[in-house]
Structures are given as structure tokens and as C-alpha cells.
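@channel sequence for tomorrow's demo:
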Amino acid sequence: MALFEITTKRKKITNGVYYEPGMSVKVAWVGGNILGSSDGRNLICDAFMRTYGVDLRKAMALNTSDLDIKKL
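C-alpha cells (generated this afternoon):
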């Protein structure tokens, strides 16, 4: 099991969802590529919703151009 830190890269307003660069969450994941699986994307979405109230799925931001993903 690995711990990933996911951080937003830029300011974005899409579909009424607004987020700033530098917003960060940590997620534990048992696989390699966390964005490569729907369960991993759900974990990221849930973590941002719990922490910031931001729905990254609605903002279409579950990709590497909007998120910086580091394995800790």
C-alpha cells in the first residue's frame, strides 16, 4: 500500500466548480497508477470533496494536466 499526495496545478472554473492551485490531499492506494482505475479516481474525488467541497469529476479535472500526483 502506498500513500499518494494529489495537488491541483492551476486555477480552474468549470461547470460551476472552482479550485485554486496548491489544494492538496493524501490518499492511500494499493496499486501503481491511481488515475488508471475508476476506484482510484473515486478515492481522489471523495478526498477533495471531504476536504474542500470540490467535485473534481464535475470539473473534469481527474487528469495529469490538472493534478500533480506524487508517491510518498
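heads up for whoever presents: The two ends are 11 Å apart (CA to CA).
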